[in-house]
Amino acid sequence: MIDKIKDYIGEADAFTTENKEELEAFRIKFLSKKGILNEFFAEFKSVPNDQKKEFGQVINALKTAAEDKVKGIVELLESREESKGVFGDLTRSAEPVIIGSRHPISIVKNQIIDIFANIGFNVSEGPEIEDDWHNFTALNLPEYHPARDMQDTFFIQTNPDVLLRTHTSSVQVRYMENNKPPIRTISPGRVFRNEAISSRSHCIFHQVEGLYIDKDVSFADLKQTLLYFTKEMFGKSKIRLRPSYFPFTEPSAEIDIYWGLKTETDYRITKGTGWLEIGGCGMVDPNVLKNCDINPDEYNGFAFGVGVERIAMLLYQIGDIRMFYENDVRFLEQFKASI
Ligand code: DAH
Q: Is the Cβ atom of 280 under 6 angstroms away from ligand 1?
């Protein structure tokens, strides 16, 4: 029997593998519960007394040989895996890193923020889920005011007091409630309207609201601010302020920019006129100031709201507003250079 054990020691010493399954088979054969070693240990009782000592020594030698072998090979295999993790396969060909790009809406939004930051406007934000007060009532649109129909509203559940904001003008109210004049702030954000989706309009879009409140602010200040903005944004500043009506401003105007008709997309976006409406503006109605605890006899100001998609469509010659929301990487990848 001792010779048999010695043969096994020879087998264990000679064993080598780079394969985990083979190593496991070796471990089971020698070291598991039903393995060779346990069998020999079980036979220890029946070994004649004068051979017990030698038997004990060889069987322990076999145990050490098998255990050392398993340990050695496990360490070797693990160290190989580790070095793979750290260095990878150094012979593989170089793989170019894929760099993402900003969404065109974010690019334009950031540009607008920068342009207004240069003339002292900070950035403010408000919630997308609004209440009636901030979206309508405080903006001089009391209940049953017909102008509420100008913006088809998504209400949340059956509570008419909770809605998805239809414009970022709601942030004006929040800002004035929490800050004292002088105020110079712009509020970029997402807005929602229950409108049919087409190439020119969508039920989700983005606006940037502007608000300037101080003493003795004039309509000329508003016009100059918009001229500065369009010059910076588009490199040209031919604009037209078309008399209009918004409950929260008096007087009110629609802002049109003259873009021209150089391309087919220009034609499509401007409906063949060369002019595109990019938003609304006006002098803040005294009622709105009152609603926000600002004394209209002491302070006045102007406000404006522009559509981010409209601007992005002009700048990047995008003929269909739906492109912004489809997340087609072939579209989005084109803005890599614009970051
Ligand atoms: N809130 C208006 C809209 O969504 C846009 C607007 C018009 C904002 C005039 C203003 C403003 O601040 O003074 O159609």
A: yes
Which of 219, 222, 246, 302 is the pocket-test mutation for ligand 1 (most atoms within 8 Å of CB)?
A: 246
Q: Rounded to an integer, what distance in angstroms lies between the CA atom of residue 259 and that of residue 262?
A: 9
CA of 181 to the centre of ligand 1 (A): 20
Q: How far is the CA of 121 from the centre of ligand 1 (A)?
A: 18
Q: Is the CB of 168 under 6 A from ligand 1?
A: no
Residues 14 and 152 in one domain: no
Q: Which atom of ligand 1 is nearest to the CA of 210?
A: 12
43-95 per-position pLDDT tens digit: 888 888 888 899 889 999 999 999 999 999 988 888 777 666 666 667 777 77
Q: How many CB atoms lie within 10 A of CB 66?
A: 24
**Residue 46: half-sphere exposure toward Cβ, Cα within 13 Å:** 5
Same-domain status, 114 and 10: no
The β-bridge relationship of strands 204-214 and 129-131 is unpaired
pTM for this prediction: 0.71
pLDDT band at 158 (very low <50, low <70, confident <90, very high): confident
Q: Is 184 part of any domain?
A: yes
User: Do 143 and 211 belong to one domain?
Assistant: yes
Claim to verify: residue 41 and residue 180 sit in the same structural domain: no
Looking at the DSSP assignment, which residues form a beta bridge with residue 300? 214
Place of tokens 């004292």: 180
Contacts of 278 (CB under 8 A, 6+ apart): 255, 256, 257, 306, 307, 310, 311
Ligand 1 midpoint to CA 253 (Å): 9
Are 71 and 113 within one domain? no
